[in-house]
Amino acid sequence: MRHGGAFGDLTMAETHSPGTDDTAIPVTCLFEGDLAGWRDAAPALDAGLAASAEFRARTGQAVIVPGPDGRPARVVLGLGASPGDVTAFRILAGRLPAGTYRLAGAPGGLDPTDAALAFALGLYRFERYRKRESAPPRLVVPGADEAEADSLAAACALAKDLVNTPANDLGPAELEAAARDLAGRFGATVEVTAGEDLLARGYPAVHAVGRAAAPGREPRMIEVTWGQSGHPVLALVGKGVVFDTGGLDLKPSAGMRLMKKDMGGAAHVLALGAMVMQAALPVRLSILIPAVENAVGGAAMRPGDVLATRKGLTVEVGNTDAEGRLILADALTRASELEPDLTLDLATLTGAARVALGPQLPPFFTDDEALAAAIEAGARRAFDPVWRLPLWKGYLPSLDSEIADLKNDPDAWAQAGAMTAALFLQKFAPAGAWAHLDIFAWNPRGQPGSPAGGEAQAIRGLYAMLKARYA
Ligand code: MN
Ligand code: MN
Description:
Helix content is 36%, strand content 19%. The chain contains 16 helices and 19 strands. It has helices spanning 5-16, 35-41, 43-50, 87-95, 112-122, 146-164, 172-186, 197-200, 204-210, 253-256, 264-278, 324-337, 351-357, 369-382, 417-426, 459-470; strands at 25-30, 62-66, 72-78, 100-105, 138-140, 189-194, 220-226, 233-238, 240-244, 284-294, 306-307, 315-316, 342-347, 363-365, 387-388, 406-407, 433-438, 442-443, 453-454. Strands 6, 7, 8, 9, 10, 13, 14, 15 and 17 form a nine-stranded mixed β-sheet that branches. Strands 2-3-1-4-5 form a five-stranded mixed β-sheet. Strand 14, helix 14 and strand 15 (387-388) form a beta-alpha-beta unit. It is elongated, with a radius of gyration of 24 Å. The protein starts with a helix and ends with a helix. The structure holds manganese (II) ion (2 copies).
């Protein structure tokens, strides 16, 4: 369908352009495989452009042709070699000057809503402390569900804004405020257990990790609930460490520098929850966020301390920097009490996940084959990649403690730190369908459409999976 038909679509759109805004600057796009045919016919349309030898239709490669006034008159965009891939639109958003553009010709197999969403994602800037200097470009994509594209892009922007906001402006209280804002938009309810109440209400690990933070920055368990009680329970659990110093096992400077992003899991489950509520999926949604600052102080948990957990298992703290799994243990136990149909936890949990797969490819873990296949299908559908790693039971003994039920710093012999962290979480996860995603939530290399900084990972793919599961 794509080959041959692609060029036909392009010329049809170019010559007829029915019912479109005359002032919008037309954007045509094509895959690498269609380039030769397009060049053959292009002289009739634009000889100068056809002669542009550098244009190979590579992903995001764009030729902006100026008109007599020097302003863009038309744009030709390369889509690369993968059918349906909309990555180019994200890059285009980062390259176009201000103006209104209109997709005038597109090959078959390109989903207009996907293209509009990719463009909207590419417009993201973090503007809390410095506003952008020029207005963003606008792209009209005929046939796109703009409401869906805008809502998904806004949810991803929320995640990125929260990750980018430094810890002096985003403590546990501000994370709670963000959850309350979101709940207010959708009529969800919020219950928060904070400070010493955590002990009385059975969240001892959340308390232990967060209790050394300064006054006003007390640890808390945030629970957002939405949807009819008869619907299947969807539990979204997100690690909310607003800053991770490492605790008394203090991180070195380089390792601490980005730790404002250690609440990335919380930001991601708020964003994914927003997508679910906006789409009004027939679920009983529960967003569970243990929000803490892993600080240094006289009240800090110590190496060698043995913590109680909500589940009743005792955990020896071998390293205070492995704090994420401690707070997630209590949150996952809370999730299991809700008897969920599905539990997803997202956390910036281990450096080992990055050693294995790098910053762009978050690993996920589950023993549920059907869920794994569904997560992979959603990720492909949304061009939002994830990679499955195993919950390899051979490494379970690395969590054995001499004096407690388990410890939070696995033995070095097991090496696979992302897996041993996932195995630790599995001991607390609900019995039913559960998946854990170890996200980076950060883009270390800025490029057009993807500024360096907070990044939303895996949640568009998870949303596609949830839509297929529940809608
Ligand atoms: Mn840590
Ligand atoms: Mn951490």
